[in-house]
Amino acid sequence: MSEADIREERLKKLQMLKNAGMEPYPARTARDTSVADFLGGFKEGNKAALAGRVMSVRGQGGIMFADVFDGTGRTQVVLQADGGANVELFEKAVDAGDFVEFSGSAFTTKRGQQSLQVQEWKMLAKSLLPIPDEWYGLKDEEKKLRERDIDILLNTELRAMIERRAKFWQAAREFYLQRGFLEVETPVLETIPGGADARPFVTHHNALDIDVYLRISCGELWQKRLLIAGFPKVFEVGRIFRNEGQSREHLQDYTQLESYEAFSDMHEGMKFVQELYRHIVKETYGKYTFEIGEHTVDLADEWPIVDFSETLEKEYGINPLTAKEKDILHAASKAGAEDASNKERAVDHLWKKARKKISGPAFLTGIPVYLEPLAKRTEGGETVERIQVILGGSEVGKGYSELNDPQDQKARFEEQQKLREAGDEEAQRLDLDYIRAMEYGMPPAFGFGVSERLFAFLENKPAHEAQLFPLLRPKQ
Questions:
Q1: What's the predicted TM-score (pTM) here?
Q2: Secondary-structure class of domain 153-304+360-466 per CATH
Q3: Of 52, 122, 355, 423, which has the highest C-beta tally within 10 A?
Q4: pLDDT per residue as tens digits for the range 395-431
């Protein structure tokens, strides 16, 4: 039967329930226990009212069997004509996929299976579309993403991944809270998007009659203003939005963690980040070693330091601190860069190719000042005190000693503004309100950010597959 034919048959069953005086979508249920608790405290003869989705139905005539899943566990229910339940209506009107309430007593079948002997049942939600057979599930990759809810229902590994994702962020929160950080929420709508090199989404605020942007960082400049306000340790876990290309590693709408600690710096931050990552993987996975693409990484190993300029000079013969812009652009062109319109984008392209050979875990340091407008300069002045976590050939986390010199910050913002005016849509904007806040005095601090890319890497999946409901183009 086609899906349309099945739906038509189920609509008839829906009417059959109504004709029998049963409301097919009631507001309330008499459920008094979960399947997990029912099985966990199983005792012959105990009364129970369970509710869940019927995953399979079998039997005929005077006895029917159904497997019921409620999200906490799965159990068998048994309906017999001489047990008081309306077996005839159940057989005619109930399908796999329906949500049903069952009341009865715990009993063990002759085969030793713990079950519920049903005295009464009632429909809670009649399904009109069929769920695929559990054994086969959804096979079409696009349909698996479009009908994610059904894939989650049938795919136990996907369900387990979603539970691990929750543990991942819970472990991160626990780490920060145990160390005295205050969890905060900063604005998602901004008049000036800041804290990252990225193209923002823009929308119109009708009440104020102004254009606003969805944030491209997890409140970086706002959190640093909280340091100015006197909070020594703050962090946020929230959604950020970047109107950029989509790839195995990049998304436009994703979760990120950012934190800021006053009176700390990049060097102290390295130890902090190592402990954070090890805590997350131990709590989420119970292990430290992972396969990420072609790389094998062990987060319990020592994390070496990789120098940015040394890596590029070894790989391309170009030192990004001393080479002329034309030579850098030429090297990037030879390496296949199509959008290297300036020195900054060219160097960034070269690095993204070079990093693929580094398994990690490692810390990248020695980044040129012109690539990082928000970090404090090193003593030499040509690089910044920035670290990036290298894992599986890519960056999965960035932190730095925060720039707290308002004059230096203003000058770097102005350089970024020149890049924007020259056509670089990802360059940062001049934020005079933030500069003014800095002029009241901002303590030295270490800031760090990591996105759900880390989770996707640990799962060894493309970023969109590690989300609950990835964004898709509407089906035509």
A1: 0.89
A2: alpha beta
A3: 52
A4: 999 999 999 999 988 998 888 888 877 777 777 888 8
